[in-house]
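The following block was generated as part of the benchmark described in Methods. Ligand: N-oxalylglycine.
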Amino acid sequence: MNCIWPEPVVRVQSLSESGIWKIPDRYVKPPSHRPSLNHNAVVSNIPVIDLAEAFSHDAAVRSETMLRLSSACKDWGFFQVVNHGVDVELMRNIREIWREFFDLPLDSKQQYANDPVSYEGYGSRLGVEKGATLDWSDYFFLHYLPAKLRNPGKWPQFPETCRDLVGEYGKEVSKLGGKLMKIFSSNLGLQEDGLQDAFGGEDFGGCLRVNFYPKCPQPDLTLGLSSHSDPGGMTILLPDENVAGLQVRKAGNWVTVKPVPSAFIINIGDQIQVLSNAIYKSVEHRVIVNSAKDRVSLAFFYNPRGDLLIGPSKELVKPDQPALYPSMTFNEYRLFIRTKGPCGKAQVESIKSSSISRRN
Ligand code: OGA
Ligand code: NI
């Protein structure tokens, strides 16, 4: 893959701050992809789950919570968790420090400019297709795990506490991810360590993508992040407390998530959909922007080790539930979104149909 972007990189934040009142054509989505801001408003929310109740001494509370988690993974692919064990102060601090990073002058951020091979650093697009319609956001992407891919030298040096906080935050959210992996495994009827083992045990991967969605003068024409499903295992999202923007697809509608204070938003990624043989759903989501407030979110991707073959767990393949997907490594799988950019559920759907047609 070429190691430069197909077109000169434009920072969306600079565009936004330049005071334009009309967005460049590159950001204008075809009408069917626009957010339709004023209609189809859906007034439900993704399930909210108190994670402490999954470990309650009261067996009835425990099983009721496990059931709610199970339905959330099957029916929504998304839920919010409270009482998740991550220090709320740390959550506030890390969001603030990244806000400060994006508030730095452009020059200070440009030294971290990323390229389409590693993606690591300060970026403004996903995918390398020339002439693609772009999303209204900038981001910072970094590798946290495995340790051999971690390069704090590429993480922001300013604000000063940024690197330490990323280290601490990564550790805490990885722990939360590990707890959820056990819960998902038990709920799927696997050994408690089943999913984690499939991810490579302690060698699982973890990346952080910090999203910055600048104010947009024409929010009804574009998206902060186009519809996609997350290619990895699961995503632990720290949303902006004050600004909604994430929308989740449910029965053909877009449900705007209302962030609960101090909660994380968890979603199933394509790798868990594959491992669970589609019992758990990696659901399409997107981000809308607005003209009044910018928005910062931190997505921590909890991924399988890159070089392991991931396919449906053998316990979940039965004569009446044939394997829906072939096995593939995550390194191979993630090249798709890195080439094409966000494309709804096109990737996981495409591997599914090819495996079925091979069988027929
Ligand atoms: C992502 C993502 C949602 C958000 O980074 O994959 O879906 O609210 N982010 O920023
Ligand atoms: Ni996502």
